[in-house]
Amino acid sequence: MGDYQPLRSDDAHTNNHVPVHNKPTVYYSKPMSPLRKLAFGCSILLCFITIVVFLWVVPCDWSKCPAKTQRQPIMSWDRSVEGMEIMGPLKVVRGLQGLNIVAMYRGPMLAYDGARDQFLPKAGGLISFIGASGLIAWFRKLPLLTHLDCFMLHIGDESMQDCLVRGEHGYLALIDSLSGIAKWRAQKTIGDQLLVDVSFPVVTPDVDGDWYHDLAVTGRLENRNHRIIAIISGQTGYIMGKPMEVEGCTDINNLTLDRDYTLYYTCKNSTSKLFSERQVALVNAVQMMTNRSVVPHGTVPVTTRHLGNEWSVNGYRLNLVNSGHSPSDYQVSVTVTDHNNQSVWSPTMQQTYAMTPVVLHFQQAISGFLLKFWYWHAPHDQKKDKEGNIMNSLSERVVLVTFNATGSTHIVNASQTDIVQLCSNRTCQPELSSQTESLLIVDLDEDGSQELISYLVTFQPREKSAPALPLWKLQTKLRLIRLESELPKLYEAIQRH
Q1: How far apart are CA 26 and CA 262, in angstroms?
Q2: By the 8 A CB rule, do 435 and 87 touch?
Q3: Segment 324-352, tens digit of pLDDT
Q4: CB 424 within 8 A of CB 389
Q5: How far apart, in whole angstroms, are the C-alpha atoms of residue 485 and residue 224?
Q6: CA 239-240-241 angle, 5° bins
Q7: Nearest to 476 by CA among 424, 425, 442, 435
Q8: pLDDT tens digits along 242-270
């Protein structure tokens, strides 16, 4: 056979001069396998998850992070707020970042600065301070308040507290401690009758089946003399059914609920003018109000309240007795006794009133009491300012009484501050009755140590360059002291002098 030769044609001969390497080359990409598709999708998802983690997960709320040891401890601070008077007890509640402080307040009563003050005169409200810094978190203008409790009743988020407040003219409300917004305001009318003289409530078990605790209060219908007992829904603030009328009582005090769900109260008889104790089973009271047989269910949170004038810690006892009705005849007797009932400190002070003390207890080694006194300098020689207000000059003194593990007693005057009090027509500011619970000891940063929170209210003289303004400006001073770190410094300073 001859050699193999390809067929030829004229066309083939014509195009034969085009070089082969100039022809375009076509590449063919095979589709991804399922395994490669899965790997590609996972890589994209991983990138997205990384972004989400670094934006929203890593910068967590430090107050809720599990590693408490990484928190920065609270430092001591002082804050001054003009134009308001803090009143009553300080309450510690959960905030966005750690613990906050809630308190009642009222605006200027005797020296008003016009539109320059952010707190209205002769009005009150609720205010919250950030625990870590003392800065104002929020404040809400409300009627003048008389009672505050942030642990009795709670609805909603279990991690936060609600504050129950009572004010003038029967005002009763539940306030969200995080925002200061009212969750409800209690019903104030029954039919066409106005409910007045409403007492601060006591918590009852759930009687309306909504799984929230309810409240019992006493009060009076505006056009009637005898008193009533009402059950208020803890969820809505509405009165259940028709209140139970208490015949023959012109006044009711000391409403309490026993563990056996019995309401106790003292009744002033309209004829004898004497108080006598009465009682009614909660089941019977609810049946009379609603005409339904309702069995209360759930348990009532146990609240411990101090009764009398005695406090104790580690076998030591403190007894305080205030007497007198005005600064000129105020007198306080203090007695501190040890384990053997032997007196270790027993002063009697004239023209002096003792506030509610607080108990100290530091790491099983040091314990004691912290006391605050008001001393009037010259109650018989009162002065009047140009606006007709009576000026009382007094001193606020804080005394620390401590006992160590060996039984040694130390009594130290921790501080003394001058206060100007203004009075007019039986109205005084700061008011003694509203300042008796101005001390609080609490572990505010939850690091195992204790902090002292206290407040002081006074009037400061204004500058002479502002003649159009009142002579005085109202000022509240709020202070936080890290007790366990400051105590050694205090004792060292006392020993040097």
Answers
A1: 95
A2: yes
A3: 998 889 999 999 999 889 999 999 999 99
A4: yes
A5: 58
A6: 115
A7: 435
A8: 888 888 788 888 898 888 888 998 888 76
